[in-house]
Design goal:
This protein has 603 residues and is mainly α. 60% of the residues lie in helices and 1% in strands. A two-stranded antiparallel ribbon has the order 1-2. The longest helix has 32 residues. This is Glycosyltransferase RgtA/B/C/D-like domain-containing protein.
Length: 603
């Protein structure tokens, strides 16, 4: 009874994912095909009301397309349940590829070297990348003090912003706006660079190099772990090609952001989880040490990393082998990082992340309601919300692509008057949720429009996205104190040329799949949904980290930020490998005998 209910629930969950993805794609098509002329931004409810028949037909067409694709994926996931057969290569080229894959997947450093060789065109023309504004602010946090600021130096908390009631009394301006430990790493390297060389340029090169090497090591280690578990040279070759042939991953691996570190740690971490649940023998001491270290990087790289680690550890309590091991190597590192930051915030050592950062969707909805319906709020609600925002400036600042203008964050020269970050107090937020709900109930169509704008684009494979390329603008200039941080003169010409070519390529539909984050996101989501629907044994282990990321990116400042989708871009090849592993229980064999991962490989 319970088994049947669980199976039906899995099928329903899989098809629910199909409906969500189909709806997101249909919304994109409706915006492109049925957009109302002269509209300053896209309102899905207005477009559907204007063309209801065509809107429904577009949605049904998307649903049919994804339905067929989903059934096909389900058939593949079911056939792959016993692993993918290691068929003998036929022909000279197939034999060479099979041998190459055997060599690549046998040692982590071989895989890393092979990937690096194929990435050389991008590395040689774009290394070491170029710092972005967030990186500059993190360094500014570490290096500068409040008394150092003058008319030419902008305080980091003015550019974020951080509400002034959160600022400590002392001179230090360290914060957890971006992960505190990552700020210490970037800032510490920068301080050493200035001390030894009188310049920030060595720090830029070191941090970019470490990021690139970490990415190569992560994929190399993931491939070497999964190699013995995946017997098919064709599947290995496909996964290797997805990574080594991806300009996106190559470029982002040299970025000075934080998301590329998280994405690299994610692929390494997923492979370690697979090793734990699929290995025929108990994992050794090395696994515990390695997983702990990778989990620490995972938690340090992004603010939500500890949440994914804790959730995965709890889910893995259902795994028969050593149920408490994941708590030790995943939950403990995650809670250690989060707890240390919380303690530092509580003692006043660092500035906490501003609460406004978690309200991106709500702010966009309120801003659009005020823009479309200036008299939407009652006098009481207007007075309460006016303690936090300048309501006219809030409506004027609305941008469907990004919530930063409403939050008055981002570059200081483009700062708006929307958020009253200098005068707002904690108690001013007490009525915010009630105001938001009442405004939504009064204007549900506009409420829905803003939610759609903020969320659908991550699951529309045809969407252009925003900031899909590393933020290497040739016109960006920045100094921290007296030291130039951007532009980076080394490789400036080739880096700008490659960037321009990439944007030209992205404008062509035939070329866009090479560079599309959303296409990879949709593919990965559908693969995981199909695995769940057919009852693959460990499907929830692979789906959970990505499901949480989908929820988290909706709260991000950007409506379709490429860097927030890097987990999917990096993770697609690894998920394909995971699906090619024999995941049956020993009792599934006809003779009831225990199997190793290399037994019973026929498909």
């Amino acid at each position: 009874m319970l088994a049947g209910l669980s199976k039906r629930s899995a099928v329903v969950a899989g098809w629910l994912v199909v409906v969500v993805v189909a709806t997101a794609t249909a919304i994109g098509l409706i915006h492109r095909i049925l957009r109302i002329d002269g509209s300053p931004y896209r309102l899905i409810t207005a477009e559907v009301r204007a063309e209801p028949v065509w809107s429904v037909l577009l949605w049904l067409a998307c649903l049919a397309f994804y339905g067929v694709a989903f059934r096909w994926l389900c058939a593949w996931m079911s056939r792959w349940r016993e692993g993918v057969a290691a068929t003998e290569p036929v022909g000279r080229w197939s034999t060479r590829v099979a041998r190459l894959m055997e060599w690549v997947f046998s040692r982590w450093y071989r895989a890393a070297i092979a990937i690096a060789i194929l990435w050389l065109p991008w590395i040689l023309t774009s290394y070491p990348g170029q710092p972005n504004p967030d990186f500059a602010r993190m360094i500014g946090e570490f290096l500068l003090q409040r008394s150092d600021f003058n008319d030419e130096i902008i305080a980091p908390y003015e550019a974020y912003p951080t509400s002034h009631y959160l600022l400590p009394d002392g001179e230090r301006i360290w914060s957890n706006h971006h992960n505190f430990f990552l700020m210490l790493y970037y800032g510490g390297v920068s301080k050493v660079s200035i001390t030894l060389f009188g310049s920030l340029m060595p720090a830029v090169f070191v941090i970019s190099t470490v990021s690139l090497l970490f990415t190569l090591a992560a994929f190399g280690r993931a491939f070497s772990i999964l190699g013995p578990l995946v017997q098919s040279w064709k599947v290995r070759a496909a996964a290797f090609a997805i990574v080594a042939g991806s300009p996106l991953i190559a470029m982002w691996s040299m970025s000075h952001s934080k998301n590329q570190l998280f994405a690299a740690a994610l692929v390494w971490w997923l492979a370690l989880v697979a090793q734990y649940v699929h290995s025929p023998e108990p994992v050794g001491r090395r696994w515990y040490v390695e997983t702990t270290l990778v989990s620490l990087v995972f938690a340090v790289a992004v603010l939500f990393g500890w949440m994914i680690l804790l959730a995965q550890a709890l889910i893995m309590l259902g795994v028969r082998r050593g149920r408490w091991a994941p708590l030790a190597v995943m939950a403990v590192p995650g809670l250690l990082v989060h707890g240390t930051v919380s303690l530092a915030v509580g003692t006043g050592l660092i500035i906490p992340s501003d609460p406004i950062e978690t309200k991106g969707v709500q702010l966009q909805q309120l801003a659009l309601i005020l823009k479309e319906h200036p008299d939407a709020l009652s006098d009481e609600d207007r007075a309460a919300l006016s303690r936090i925002f300048d309501l006219e400036a809030m409506a004027e600042a609305f941008d469907p692509d990004i919530s930063d203008p409403v939050k008055s964050s981002g570059p200081f020269d483009r700062k708006t008057e929307s958020f009253k970050y200098k005068t707002v107090q904690p108690e001013d937020w007490d009525d915010f949720t009630g105001i938001w709900l009442r405004a939504g109930a009064e204007h549900p169509d506009t409420f829905l429009d803003a939610l759609v704008m903020k969320s659908y684009r991550y699951l529309d494979p045809l969407d252009r996205g925003t900031n899909w390329y590393p933020p290497w603008s040739g016109t960006y200039e920045r100094t921290v104190g007296d030291h130039q941080l951007a532009p980076v003169d080394f490789n400036k010409g080739p880096r700008t040329a490659v960037r321009d070519e990439a944007y030209d390529c992205y404008d062509e539909m035939a070329c866009r799949p090479l560079l599309s984050h959303s296409l990879r996101t949709v593919l990965l989501v559908l693969i995981c949904a199909a695995a769940i629907a057919v009852g693959r044994r460990f499907s929830w282990l692979w789906a959970m980290p990505f499901a949480l990321q989908i929820g988290i990116v909706v709260m991000s400042p950007l409506s379709a930020g490429g860097r927030y989708a890097l987990g999917f871009t990096y993770g697609l090849a690894i998920v394909i490998l995971l699906m090619a592993i024999d995941d049956r229980q020993p009792s599934d064999d006809p003779d009831g005998s225990a199997r190793t991962p290399t037994d019973s490989r026929g498909s």
